[in-house]
Automatic annotation (TrEMBL):
Binding site for a divalent metal cation 1: H6, H8, E107, D220
Pfam families assigned: TatD_DNase
SUPFAM superfamilies: Metallo-dependent hydrolases
InterPro entries: DNase_TatD-rel_CS, Metal_Hydrolase, TatD-like, TatD/YcfH-like
Keywords tagged on the record: Hydrolase, Metal-binding
Record-listed a divalent metal cation 2 binding positions: H148, H172
The keyword Coiled coil is annotated on this UniProt entry: no
Alphabetized CDD domains for the sequence: TatD_DNAse (cd01310)
UniProt keyword Iron-sulfur, yes or no: no
Organism, as annotated: Candidatus Gottesmanbacteria bacterium GW2011_GWA2_47_9
GO MF term list: DNA nuclease activity; hydrolase activity, acting on ester bonds; metal ion binding
Protein name as catalogued: Hydrolase, TatD family
Length: 272
């Protein structure tokens, strides 16, 4: 069994065939899906989708760093979280946090990519503040955090180290080098590997150095479609393809990747 720990199947790209996409993924062995959000609307949609598919689809609610420019209201996010926690849990395992639709805060973090070539200090500061607020929300509700980091690793690790405690979480779609990998490992963070491992030479060079015990499988669907399907909409059904490439790079069996990443997902998100 595989778990796609980061896909956006609530996005409009799946409005015409969402049930089929989920069904095709299940046929491919992908039995559970974690659906992070990027803004308030997608958070609401992610929760609704998780409630429609209890024990199969789980939501992450959060604001993408680019949302910082819109001054998002964290109170609305927390309201969504508390109302979900107050709702009746899934009968699958009522005592478990996984019986609730929301299993994480995110995706949130720092993304300085659009600020290349400009100082943009104020905009970066707004992202930091938004990220810190969501770290606090995760800490208050004892939830793991799904973290988006691009071209911002130095500030990212500095900010994490300034927190009262190190969060449980994953660096989604890991794009760092060996130094960033060691820093993530030192902080007991997981790293997400996506479909770009099939075509990114840089990522392919890093993957053999990543302990399988800190690795999660992601598609980031509908984005980052793996080869040989690039140019088409990505889907969770491609998780086994990603696992195959990782296994080849790690020189281990696909079964080992499958079993360990499933264990890692259950550990981080308290799935059953």
């Amino acid at each position: 069994m595989y778990i796609d720990t980061h896909c956006h199947i609530n996005f409009p790209q799946y409005n015409d065939d969402r049930a089929m996409v989920i069904g095709n993924a299940k046929k491919a062995g992908v039995k559970k899906f974690i659906n992070p959000s990027v803004d308030l609307l997608s958070a609401q949609q992610a929760v609704a989708l998780a409630q429609k598919h209890p024990g199969v689809v789980f939501a992450g609610i959060g604001f993408h760093p680019y949302e910082a420019q819109h001054n998002p209201d964290l109170k609305q996010l927390e309201k969504l979280l508390t109302s979900s926690l107050d709702s009746k849990p899934s009968t699958l395992n009522p005592a478990s946090p996984a019986g609730r639709p929301i299993v994480a805060i995110g995706e949130c973090g720092l993304d300085y990519h659009q600020y290349k070539g400009e100082e943009a200090a104020g905009k970066k500061q707004n992202q930091k503040l938004l990220f810190e607020e969501q770290l606090s929300l995760a800490r208050a509700h004892q939830l793991p955090i799904i973290m988006h980091v691009r071209d911002a690793f130095e500030d990212f690790f500095t900010l994490l180290d300034s927190q009262p405690e190190m969060p449980r979480g994953v660096i989604h779609c890991f794009s760092g080098g060996l130094q960033e990998l060691r820093m993530a490992q030192k902080r007991n963070l997981f790293v997400g590997i996506d479909g770009n491992v099939t075509y990114s030479k840089q990522l392919a060079m890093i993957v053999p150095h990543i302990p399988i015990s800190m690795m999660l499988l992601e598609t980031d669907a509908p984005y980052l479609t793996p080869a040989p399907h690039r140019g088409t909409r990505n889907e969770p059904k491609y998780i086994p393809l990603i696992a195959q490439i990782i296994a080849e790079l790690q020189r281990v069996s696909v079964q080992e990747i499958e079993e360990q990443t499933m264990t890692n997902a259950h550990t981080l998100f308290l799935l059953q």
